[in-house]
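Supplementary Text 2. Reproducibility record for the structural model of the 405-residue chain.

All settings were left at their defaults, and a single model was retained for analysis rather than an ensemble. We include the record here because the model underlies the residue-level annotations in Supplementary Table 4.
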Amino acid sequence: MEKNSLNKAAMTPKERLNALLGAAFLMATSAVGPGFLTQTAVFTEQLLASFAFVILASIILDVGAQVNIWRIIAVSEKKGQDIANAVVPGLGYVVSFFVVLGGLAFNIGNVAGGGLGVNALLGFSPTVGAIMTGVICIGIFLSKQANVAMDKVVRYLGAMMILLTAYVMFVSSPPYAEAALRTVAPLELDILAIITIVGGTVGGYITFAGGHRLLDAGIKGQENLRYVTNTAISGIVVASIMRCILFLAILGVVAAGFALDPDNPTASVFQIAAGEVGFRMFGLVLWAAGITSVIGAAYTSVTFLTSFHKSIKNNQNYWVVGFIVFSTMVFAIVGQPVALLVLAGAFNGLILPLTLGSVLLAAHNKKIIGNYKHPVWLTAFGGIVVILTAVLGVRTLFISIPQLF
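Retained model, structure tokens:
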């Protein structure tokens, strides 16, 4: 993607730090999309303080998936689809199909979320807001230093989302002690909630966003594993901080006896906690979540197409622009395609076990990773995540498909 990508020898410490931060925030903000906000609100209202345990368990599983995938991408110096093709010829194309299909469908939802954010913030129609969101994202990828611009945008908007949500958390005065206790002693245990949160944080294209970004930046090989591992964990930490702050903000509202609006639960949290100003803040957070997720979904989905033809790799930014244009046009003309989103959501549940499973097989194949020895505990950790997400993915697929007809 970057014609002037820097390798480790040519990269200054500042440039490397910017690339590492960009990768961590790209992964984190790809996870923190409009669906993330709604999902957290719904589960918090259902489980109350016990949702803290779900967050803790999901963080542990997220790390198991993320670290495995990022490390093998780095040592093999291959992108996710190329690793899958090396394990089983043709598997990479299957993986690419699922990732791009899910990324495209969810990107339509991300554009819609950006439009709704602009609507709440400025009062413009969601369609106008969606077009504004798409135009800004296109401008980023058409700039001369697209990757530098992308890294900065996701970092700054990610930090802004955390700060604004933290303000609402403090205003809502959640029961901190109760939340801390239920982190290790939940009153209610919801396994499906745990797996759903895992899929929403590192499922589909999300877990590859930062790993592919580091590869494009030239941060790869065994000599860079320390940077890669730390960045993978940092991405999970950033997304988890946002999840925890949002959870506490919501908990403060529902613990005070307020009922959330089922049509827009997160907006009602901000409005109940901070009034009209809070509602405008929600619009800004939702817009930031939408725009950063559009960037992450479009960039990562296209990286899965670069193995199909050299022209795609050589013109990657233009393909990303096309991806965003198409997503924006579908929402602007047709509206949110609910049926497609439901089916893509079912497929998305199968992507993580498929991709992580192929990565774990590659982790012990010397033809792919050379003399690198992958820790056995990491393989076992990843295997648990594969089994859990595969079971839920199949279950979701069989539930979702009949709903389309």
